[in-house]
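Per reviewer request, we include the raw input and output of the structure prediction for the construct analysed in the revised manuscript.
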Amino acid sequence: MSILRDFVRVSRSRRCPVCERADWCLVSRDEPPTAAICSREANGAKRSIGEAGYLHVLHDNSRTWHRPPVLIPLTTAEGIDFSKQAEDYRREAGDLERAQLAYGLGLTVVSLARLGIGWSGRHRAWSFPMSDADGMVRGIRLRYVDGRKLAVRGGREGLFIPHDLGPIDKLLIAEGPTDTAALLDLGFAAVGRPSCTGGVGLLVDLVRRRREREVVVVSDADAPGRRGADNLASVLVAYCTTVRMIEPPYGVKDARQWKRNGATAADVSALIDRAEPRRLRITTTIVERKGGCRHGS
């Protein structure tokens, strides 16, 4: 394909501007790049380039381009029973295949099962149900064997909630289902958001309904992840007594990699304890005027 002649492979010094990885993807030869062929991210792409990936056309000045924050098209799901579909996928998944996936991801079958993992033979991809605060399935995330993440058409973004999430003292919020599974494996109560910026309203609804007192937002160790986590923490302080934000240690990208590197529950708890609590603060301002003053809040 002639279009590939105008692209070069990404590297650690010139990462993919779409998925921010340093392997597999391609970027245009110009500097800064005006296009990228991402092997992982289809959302926002102009078209597919076959096995090479998905063509993303960036702004003329790529410094003003932002990664699409939501992976799931926000379309209605009228007439689609996603709960039944998720259950059908769950039944379709084989025990051996689930065990192989868990081993490859550095997770346990138990944590993946708690999140309702299944297999869609039609899509040739693993499935994770996405729910609202009441546990109603409203969409299904697909994870392909090559790591691409899409969704079943017609659904809406939702949260990755373990089926046995009971009353707890501290709720951890991760990005995506596999990071959530890693925290579950370490013994924490955790739920996942659909992307680094998605699910804010759903999480507000969840913590309000459950009357959570303490929430910990676990950020990916990259700029988009930190911005999304910081925004979520700033919103949740209005609904929780205490909100903290943490990210894995230097050199570790996310919660799943942290677990694979040998993190223990004590390591995560120690980081949480050191994090500065965020609490809602109401301040009063005083505006002085000639002949008196006016107080406001």
